[in-house]
Amino acid sequence: MPEVTYLEALRQGLREEMQRDERVFILGEDVGRYGGAFKVTDGFMAEFGDRRVIDTPISEAAIVGAAAGAAHLGMRPVAEMQFIDFISCAYDILTNYVATARYRANLACPIVVRGPCGGYVRGGPFHSQNPEAAFFHTPGLKIVCPATARDAKGLIKAAIRDDDPVLYFEHKYLYRRVKEQLPEDGDLVTPIGRARVAREGGDLSIVTYSAMVWKALEAAQTLEKEDGLRVEVLDLRTLLPMDDAAILATVRKTNRVMIVHEDTRTGGVAGEIAARINEAAFEWLDAPVLRVTAADTPLPYAPTLEDYVLPQTADIVAVARKLAAY
Amino acid sequence: MSRVDVVMPQMGESIAEGTLAKWLKKVGDEVKRDEPIFEISTDKVDAEIPAPSGGILAEIKVPEGQTVPIQTVVAVIETDATAGVGAAPAPAAAPAASPAPRPQAPTPVAAGPAAAAPALAPGSQAPSPVTESADERLRRRSTPLVRKIAAEHSVDIATVPGTGHAGRVTKKDILDYIDTGAPAAPAAGGAAGAAPIAGPQAPASGGAGQWEATPWPGDRVEAMSRIRQLTSEHMVFSRRTSAHVTTFYEVDMTRVARLRAANKKGYEDRGVKLTYLGFIVKAVADQLRRHPVLNAAVQRAAIIYRGQVNIGIAVALD
């Protein structure tokens, strides 16, 4: 089985879906002639033509709006936000229109809005955001965050096939740093709404997603080697709808849980997860639910400051030790 | 002028609450230090409680008949003293007058009421004052998971050694404790009251099943004193946790009677009554050493042969 990068796996998923279903098309800034700012759609225009790979003006609201309209007419658009930070320009159309169309007008809106999120690349505050919290509490939307190459492919396919709007947040830091052997044939689809145990353990659970899965796994290795702790890492994969059963299962298993995400602390998804754990698994807790998140500040440009603000493996190790000693 | 709190005292290590049976003074009365100001009724004993300081009984916070946890402030005395006098600590208020049956016997003798059986410590413990710190609370109550395990196994968290944060009991601590089956500290000598009892917990209502007697027309209903309630519960509990076997033998006590008659006066002169009970207890204790299986307890599928011989004697108080 060939080894495939996260980015290549995403590209494969998109290509396979476009080959499989002619209603699927891609629109966004520089996706066609340029092949995408990160080369995700490299070669697509040549293969599928300019009516299925569309270069748009610089207007995220228009991109998403056009996608919504096309979806109503039976198409399956995949709208790209060049950097996911720009999705805030489409906030109105996504929350006030796309999320509610089915409820208000019985109009299906099977669009996918995807884009690279995250930092650690010295991108500064407008090119490093994690916007999931902004859409997390909009009923009507789905949110997926692949951490592995396999899920990058599996989740884009599932998102495209989903009859409802899905936000697909890929992580730019993982594009070329994560590689995995993937089968060449077969239909690799990751179900939306199902978490995955990335690493099994009995002493302590880390609930996390996206790039933090890798930092959590690094931390787990250190904790096993130095502290003899067996840490379980749960990769949520989907944020909305969240896999409550998987979260409950890991809490019942280890009784000590911490949530790690790259997004800022206040109002971040970790708070919601902690609340759900409190409601559903209080009697299984042997320690408070702890969090590791970015500090509540816009992301700095200066490398030293970015490193300080974003969660690092050492931060995860430190909090895990605190949790284990409670 | 300063205000001194009068609290419900703790009359024994395992006692968690007391009933304020009777006020001996009213609000506005002058009280002298150490003068009895109220009577309480607890699991073990009824007692008169002395005033922790002299002054005027300014406030009564707990009415007659109410049961409150130990350390609850039941009244306030206003004193003339200007120095800051804190709330009287509970052990200092223990009266001299009442007979407190001690030491506690872990296993009651099969015949007779088992009033001396160790008090059960159900999950609801005496709530601490609001001033308790987070660490103290954690040591007292641990975490939801540990409380759940404690309740399932009828273990008092207070008896489990804790190795967690702030010395609290962790999941591992309590599971290890349950697996080894016995408290780290020796059970005899007064600490037995808090020892865990493996086995079915006597419900507070005292009944072995769900059936409850109800009054019919023409019946007279009389409330039981706390001691009587507990005696009743413990008697039933004893039958549910130990097999009761009764055998009758005729024993010629002539020689014992002669021994007693000859030595009675000598003991009386020293202020003690030489009764037949003393002889019987000694005989029982000696024989328990010779037949250890009679001095044993059952723990699930194992027999614990006790290293010590302890005999509990129930005393009727009224």
Give your account of this protein's structure.
The complex is a heterodimer of chains A (326) and B (318). With 326 residues, chain A is of the alpha/beta class. Chain A folds into 2 domains: 3-181, Thiamin diphosphate (ThDP)-binding fold, Pyr/PP domains (Rossmann fold), CATH 3.40.50.970; 196-325, 3-Layer(aba) Sandwich (Rossmann fold), CATH 3.40.50. In chain A, 38% of the residues lie in helices and 20% in strands. In chain A, strand 10, helix 8 (212-227) and strand 11 (231-235) form a beta-alpha-beta unit. In chain A, helix 1 (6-20) runs parallel beside helix 7 (149-161), helix 3 packs parallel to helix 4 and helix 9 crosses helix 10. In chain A, 52% of the residues are buried. Chain B contains 6 helices and 10 strands. Chain B has helices spanning 134-141, 144-152, 171-180, 226-241, 254-269, 276-290, and strands at 2-7, 17-23, 30-31, 36-42, 46-50, 55-60, 67-69, 73-79, 296-299, 302-305. In chain B, a hairpin with a 3-residue loop joins strand 4 and strand 5 (46-50). The radius of gyration of chain B is 23 Å and the shape is extended. The chains are: A alpha/beta (326), B alpha+beta (318). The interface between A and B is small, with 9 and 9 residues.
Q: Roughly how much helix do the residues of chain B carry, as a percent range? A: 10-25%
| Terminal residue distance of chain B | 42 Å
Structural class, from helix and strand content of chain A?
alpha/beta
In CATH terms, the superfamily of the largest domain in chain A is Thiamin diphosphate (ThDP)-binding fold, Pyr/PP domains
Give me the count of strands of chain A: 14
Major sheet attributes of chain A: 7 strands, mixed
Radius of gyration of chain A: 19 Å
What's the number of domains of chain A? 2
How many extended strands of chain B? 10
- Name the shape of chain B in a single word: extended
- Coarse shape of chain A: globular
